[in-house]
Amino acid sequence: MIERRLSLGERLTLAIPYLWIAAFFLAPMLLIAKISVSQSVLARPPYEPRFHWRDSLSELWSKAQTLTLDNYRALVGDSLYFDAYVSSLWIAAVATLATLFVAYPFALAMARSPRRWRPFLIGVAAAPFWTSFLIRVYAWIALLKDEGVINNALIALDLISAPIEMFATTGAVIVGIVYSYLPFMLLPIYAALEGQDPSLREAAADLGASPAEIFLRVTLPLSRDGVIAGALLVFIPAVGEFVIPDLLGGSDTLMIGRTLWNDFFANHDWPAASAAAIALVSILLAPLLLWERARLREEEGRR
Amino acid sequence: MSLSFHIARVGTLIAGFVFLYAPIVILAGMSFNASRLVSVWGGFSTKWYAALFDNELLIASAKISLAAALLSATIATFLGLLAAVALARFGAFRSRMLFFGAIHAPLVLPEVVLGLALLSCFVALGIGRGFATLVIGHVTLTMCFTTVALLAALRGCDPALEEAAMDLGATPVQAFALVALPQIAPAMASAFLLAFTLSLDDLVIASFATGPGATTLPMRIYSQVRLGVSPQINAISTLLLGLVALALGGSALAMQAGKRRGL
């Protein structure tokens, strides 16, 4: 890639958003990394910095050699954080799979609808995405509670005699994730299915494939990119989710977003929370970067 | 296509839309329930809406949320426009990767992490938290979304038109303002709307970035929701849903009008 020098006007244009992002994103993230190697103290701010901005290079070097990675070690040693990671990844994975199973047939039905109906259908399906996330999660409380809409309906229909315990369970969290993140899965899959050439399916049918075979060997493989994009768009935010487990989950539903929040606000253990945040970001970004690199390689291979 | 295929298709569509809309419809219905209980229908009533307009704390938070959303969406659209111009038109410049990565990172970062980082930064710099820090937090969160939306729109317009304007004597700024800007005006409107709704909706960043004097509506709702389902919250939720529906309908009409004029 040939880098070119920017003109003065171009530099000014770039400088404004760049400075904002540097001041309010890059610098705070560096600070989080710095706090994560600091010691927790009872003060305000509740940590004792290891490094100071006035440190000379030799001071920095000597400090770097005695760097405390205790907060990171504690992440692995402390069963609370470790369990929260494992359970967040697990809940997010199950919820992503469930979202896929709900979204795929829905997207397929929309993509196979008459052409003039499609913009309307996709608009109506995406509209809830614009309404308050908090309120959509809150709406599920009234549905899932012991005296909620679903239990009342089932009792009225004599299908059950006592309410099923649905609220404040991990299952409720998964339902909440599926509901809240459905558009993220629906839209990329719909885009992939809508773009498929119908003559490929007709050709398969002409060659004797059954509808199931056409789906498994033509439609599904061709929608792979949409499925991967949708799965990432659901999985990544779901791992760090805070609102859904907090409102719909029980006390035994352990998720990292909630643990981070508690450590930061309730326990005031900023170094531990920062270390957990840095670890979380690394865990989430690594597969994304690997996927992007694989995609670039594949593109190069095709050329 | 066979009849059974059509039945399956329509059935799937109906099931999907029921899943998407039933919770919202039930929520709106309950806001008109005279009874305080979810399980009992006590007749039609608008008393929860009346109670809402007497709730000064809630109204004050709604005003703060609206002001913060308007201001942060404006700043985020402006910053997003500059960032999108840089990414779409400047070619390969030094530190483009860092810029690109930093702009897109908040899209994948859990909000708790961004909130944590912002709060630590404000505390370390000794900045008192309040309305200004709330807006800073929301701009940082939403400008990645506005950048992505405007970048897509800018890539869609033909740079040859701007070049032609410059050949005819326009300065680059004039060419951009008179040729490219009108083309991406609908995208600017939707980017603004997206940033506005994201800011209005946000709970996590606001909780970290704001101070005691500037409690937003989602924060107020959240603190009440944790105590259980309340008809007043149903009422305010219904109002918010109605507001979003109006905004969506309005923007759809505006886009149709734009299409008819050939924009």
UniProtKB/TrEMBL annotation, chain A:
Keywords: Cell membrane, Membrane, Transmembrane, Transmembrane helix, Transport
Protein's GO biological process: transmembrane transport
ABC transmembrane type-1 domain mapped to chain residues: 85-291
InterPro entries: MetI-like, MetI-like_sf
Transmembrane segments: 12-33, 89-108, 120-141, 153-182, 226-244, 270-291
Record's subcellular location: Cell membrane
GO cellular component terms attached to this protein's record: plasma membrane
Membrane topology summary: Multi-pass membrane protein
Family per record: Belongs to the binding-protein-dependent transport system permease family. CysTW subfamily.
Designated name of the protein: ABC transporter permease subunit
